[in-house]
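We emphasize that the prediction below concerns an isolated chain of 336 residues; any contacts that depend on oligomerization or on bound cofactors are therefore not represented. The input was used exactly as deposited, without trimming of termini.
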Amino acid sequence: MSNLRMAALFAACMTCLAPQGRADDWNAVIDAAKKEGKVVVYNMALGAPYFVAVLKSFEAKYGIPVESLDLRASELAERIRTEQAAGRFLGDAEIITTTMVEEQLKNGDFIQKLPEIPNAAKLRPPFKASEYSVPAYVQPMGILINTRLVKDEDVPKSWADLNNPKWKGKILSDDMRPLGSGNTMFAILEKNMGPQFNQQLAEQKPTFSRDMRNDARRVARGEYPIYVPQIFAFTSDLKGLPVKVIIPKEGAPFAQMDMAVLKNAPHPNAARLFIQHFLDVDSQLLYANAWMPPVNEEAAKRADAEAQPFANAKLIGPAKLSERPDMMSLAKKLYP
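Result of the prediction step, given as a token string:
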């Protein structure tokens, strides 16, 4: 047998063996995760049913209980910082915004390098894993209207339509001054709509609140005709009520949510397995059908007809960490 033929045969054999080797390696991760006994996930899902569904599917598939700590962005960031600084390593995985991951890497040693996650290879463009984190999903924001209080001819088609004088004093909003969805919207629209937009919106005297799910229901009850920013997926919880989420022509501001493994995670294999499961097409499809753009290519294609416009919406943003201090300062100036 010629050397060339022997080399080709060896290469073919190695190709056949490699997938089995990887499968065996991953089975070892699963076995180790089960021995660890649980996984603790820090997140900002705010009780979202699609997130709970992913947790339950993980527990059902692997028999590993999930402990979930669900907090707003600012509270979660401080919780992780405090625990890590004190050497109290309680959490395993986190699901937070890309900018928060960037901030963690800049300000402290809070997360560890991401181990290999096989499903990361199935991310759809432009999403990709970094050395420390992998995209989980996209959280886009639109405008929520009460369909009984907003006439068809008055439905906002642009973000600029919020500044119509008829809406003065009638807009409910997530607080734009602290870290969170309100300030994310503020920062992205400042860049995409120009500074005059936020100045005029401030003159509309929006009412601030920080209970996003209840605020959407306040609009459904008719307390306000408009709420911003409306997380797409939160609207899917309001089916049958007189509300509608609008995607303005400029696009939807968004926050990209990433997954990472916390430093000295007590259950590192369970954390790795949880991240792999979150990127499974069935998990991602739960998000897609809840009107949340998934990062898995197949899930985006398989979203149901009602969810398609949201799962594949035009996006603008995201906000940048480097701009955050200025944007928070400006919001506090416009909304003293």
